[in-house]
Structure formats: C-alpha cells, structure tokens
Design brief:
133 residues, mainly alpha, Arc Repressor Mutant, subunit A, two-stranded antiparallel sheet, 5 helices, 2 strands, 6% strand
Length: 133
C-alpha cells in the first residue's frame, strides 16, 4: 500500500480463513507485523477505508480489529490523524506472547519432547547425527 508521502507500507496477507473472525485475523496480522518489526513505534496504521478497500472487507470489520489493538494499548488514536503504534507496543506484545506460549503451547511441546525422549543436545543441534547408542 502507498502512504500519503509516496512510501510504501508493509503488506498483509490477502487471504482470510474460516477458523476465526476476520477482525481477529486482521488484529493478529498487525500484531505479527509489530513483532516482526515491519511496523514500528510511531508508525501509522493504514486507514480503515484503505484496508477495507484493499482487502475487500467491511470497514466496520477493520474498525473492530483496530479497536482491539486500541483496547490492548498497542495502538493510539490521534483525532484527525489516524491510528499509530504506541511506544512500548512491541515489548508489551513480547511479554504477553511469551506468557501465552509458556502457558498454552509449551506444556504440549514439553510433553512431546518427554514422550519422544529427546535430549537437550538433540533439540539444540537437530541436524547432527544422533549420538545415542
């Protein structure tokens, strides 16, 4: 997408899936862009109209996804100027994503590691031949 100053904005994936609401997928894509560094503190989000037109979704859907980001204090609205990534958004996201990973995903991964009897060496050096006998 083009910004008003002629520079380009990072692109989001165009496809949506049926596993969760589109507004939630939009929120998750913006979060991923912040975590990946594609969107940095102070960067503007594309306007609701731009995203709605570009991705052929309802403007209210975009607004709902953006509102989740505002509610999570990742984005701020500047009246008459748009929405911008808050200072500290990436750090806040990293903290939350780490906690979520450890609480929700790690127990399942750890159980699989235990079940397969994998050693720390095998996990840290997966391409080396197995040295067990």
């Amino acid at each position: 997408m083009k910004r008003h100053d002629g520079s380009t904005e990072p692109m989001m994936e165009r496809e949506w899936n049926d596993s969760q609401p589109i507004y939630r997928q939009l929120r998750d894509r913006v979060v991923a862009m912040i975590l990946d560094g594609a969107l940095k503190e102070g960067d503007p989000l594309p306007s609701v109209r731009t995203v709605a037109a570009e991705y052929r979704i309802n403007p209210l859907t975009v607004l709902k996804g953006y509102q989740e980001l505002v509610d999570e204090q990742l984005v701020e609205t500047r009246r008459g100027r748009g929405m911008f990534i808050n200072a500290g958004a990436r750090a806040l996201l990293l903290k939350g994503e780490r906690q979520r990973f450890l609480a929700e995903e790690w127990p399942r991964i750890h159980a699989t590691i235990q079940r397969l009897g994998l050693s720390a060496d095998e996990l840290l050096n997966p391409l080396r031949p197995n040295r067990r006998r």
